[in-house]
Amino acid sequence: MARFTREELEAFNGSTVDDLLGDPATQPLKLLFVGINPGLWTAAVNAHFARRGNRFWPALYQAGITSSLVDASDGMPPDARDELVAKGVGITNLVPIATARADELTAEQLRDGGERLRRRVAELRPRVVAMLGLTAFRQAFGERKAPLGLQDELFEGSELWLLPNPSGLNAHHTVDSLADWYGRAAEAAGVV
Fold first, then answer.
1. Is 78 helix (H, G, I), strand (E, B) or coil?
2. 33-66 in b/e burial notation, b at 16+ Cβ within 10 A?
3. What is the pLDDT of residues 89-131, one digit of tens each?
4. For 28-62, what is each residue's pLDDT tens digit?
5. I need a surface site. Which of 86, 103, 139, 171 has the fewest CB within 10 A?
6. Burial class (CB in 10 A: 0-12, 13-18, 19+), 161
7. In angstroms, rounded to a whole number, what is the distance separating the alpha carbons of residues 32 and 94?
8. Do residues 94 and 112 touch, judged by C-beta distance below 8 A?
9. Distance CA 37, CA 180 (A)
10. Is 157 left (phi over 0), alpha (psi -120 to 50) or beta?
C-alpha cells in the first residue's frame, strides 16, 4: 500500500493524471465520467478517484459497472482498466491539474476546463457524459440552475448527466444514492 507524507503529496500540486480511455478507433466510448479535478493522492498514483474513502469505485461496483470492487489507491489495476475500456467507459477531469481540494480551483480554471471539456467530448464522441459535480459544472458553464440528472440539451452531441460528486466531502449522498445515479447514466449509455 502506497504511503505519502504531507510534503510528498504537496509535491503533486499542479500535476496531471492520464485520462482512462481506450482507442476510440477500436472501442467506441459509451460513457465518459468527468471528475472535477484530480486530488493529490490521485496524481501521486496516476489513477482516478484513488484516495481511500472516495466512493466512486464502490458506487461503480454497486451499480454493476465494474465486476469487482476496484482499489485504485496504489494505481489503477490493469484488469480493472481493461474491463472499463472493454465496456466503453472512460474517465477524465473538468480541470486537469491536481489540488488538495476542488474548492481551490479558480473561476477562470473552471471556465477554461469547461472549454477544454467541450473540445474533448467533441473529439471523443461518447454516448453519455456523466459530470460528477453539480456546483463545478454550474460554475464552469454559467448554468446556475442546472439540475441533478439528465439534462434537456445535448453536450457537444452527447447526452449529459449531472451527477453527485463521490468525494467524502459530499455528505448529501451515500454509496447507495451514488450507485443509483451512476447506474442510470450507465444504462442510458448501454454499459449495463
1. helix
2. bbbbbbbbbbbbbbbbbbbeebbbbbbbbbbebb
3. 999 999 999 999 999 999 999 999 999 999 999 999 999 999 9
4. 999 999 999 999 999 999 999 999 889 999 999 99
5. 171
6. buried
7. 11
8. no
9. 23
10. left
pLDDT single digits (tens) 143-188:
999 999 999 999 999 999 999 999 866 678 999 999 999 999 999 9
Beta strands 149-150; 128-132: pairing state? unpaired
All cell numbers assigned to 57? 469505485
Which helix (DSSP H) or strand (DSSP E) does residue 130 occupy?
Answer: strand 128-132
CB atoms within 10 A of CB 84: 23
Q: How far apart are CA 171 and CA 192, in angstroms?
A: 27
Q: Which three cell numbers stand for residue 41?
A: 493522492
Q: Is the pTM of this model over 0.90?
A: yes
Q: Which residue has the cell 454509496?
A: 175
